Amino acid sequence: MKKILVAGKVQGIVLKSEKPINFLGTVDKKTGIISDKNHDLFEKSIKDTILVFPSGVGSSVGAYTIYSIKSNNTAPLAMICQKADLTVVTGCALTNIPLIIISDEEFSSIENGMKISLDTDSSNPIQYQ
């Protein structure tokens, strides 16, 4: 099951987290680096990645963080999640960052460092290379 919430076409390398992301408290708005020491992506940059994570958590103000990282050119190229939450959906819609929701099974098959092509107009929007 794939559900396209924000359309787009990009290619990039996967940065995957097994933990939800709180954009407001976890992502540095200027650098796009994960600043939470307890997060599995601590000190990694989400800039120009295909960010794969279970879901967003936290305040709806996190959508403005997504807007800020896009404005600062430190945003991911696209996001892939297991669960749609208001923060991530709103942030991606505001910034035209492609967003696709996938099944738990497909989430498990995606690994860090994989190269992925996304094309939401295609019958198979996620292509693994």
From TrEMBL:
GO terms for molecular function: lyase activity. It is an enzyme of class 4 (lyase). It catalyses: (R)-5-phosphomevalonate = (2E)-3-methyl-5-phosphooxypent-2-enoate + H2O. InterPro entries: PMDh-S-like, PMDh-S-like_dom. Its EC number is 4.2.1.182. Heterodimer composed of a large subunit (PMDh-L) and a small subunit (PMDh-S). This is phosphomevalonate dehydratase. It comes from Marine Group I thaumarchaeote.
